[in-house]
Amino acid sequence: MAAKRTVYHVSPSGERAAAAGVKWQVEGREGRRLLDEPHRTQQEAIDSARRHAKEHTPAQILVHARDGHIRTAYTYGNTLAVPPDERGRRPGESGGFF
């Protein structure tokens, strides 16, 4: 059986965090540990997510745009690399987002 893929989300922070200068966040779960890191720029958040993903392969990074849709996905390690369609399903799957 294949190892479960760790998924990291790079997304805009909430209004309260943005007021404090934190504009982007990295969220994910590494085993039992919940990851929630604040960053000032999207590039800093992506770089941080890449470091985590390379340490916890197989992994995937989903970069969200400001409106919430998935803008880009990066995959690390031996894992299925078929991108999800606009509803988060892979070809032939039924159901909702991952």
Structure in words:
The chain is an alpha+beta fold and 98 residues long. 19% of the residues lie in helices and 35% in strands. The protein has two helices and five strands. It has helices at residues 15-19, 42-55; strands spanning 6-12, 24-30, 33-39, 59-64, 70-76. The chain has a five-stranded mixed sheet, with helices on one face. A hairpin with a 2-residue loop joins β2 (24-30) and β3 (33-39). Mean pLDDT is 78; it is low at 94-98.
Compact summary:
This protein is α+β, with helices and mostly antiparallel strands and 98 residues long.
Sum up the structure in keywords.
alpha+beta, 98 residues, 5 strands, globular, disordered C terminus, 5-stranded mixed sheet
Q: Provide the β-strand percentage band.
A: 25-35%
What strand line-up does the widest sheet have? 3-2-1-4-5
Number of helices, where a helix is a run of at least 4 consecutive DSSP H or I residues: 2
Task: Please tell me how large the radius of gyration is.
Answer: 14 Å
The helix/strand order is EHEEHEE
What can be said about the biggest beta sheet? Answer: 5 strands, mixed
Q: Tell the overall outline.
A: globular
Helix fraction bin? 10-25%
Which whole number gives the mean pLDDT? 78
Number of strands: 5
Secondary-structure topology with pairs:
Elements: E1 6-12, H1 15-19, E2 24-30, E3 33-39, H2 42-55, E4 59-64, E5 70-76
Parallel strand pairs: 1-4
Antiparallel strand pairs: 1-2, 2-3, 4-5
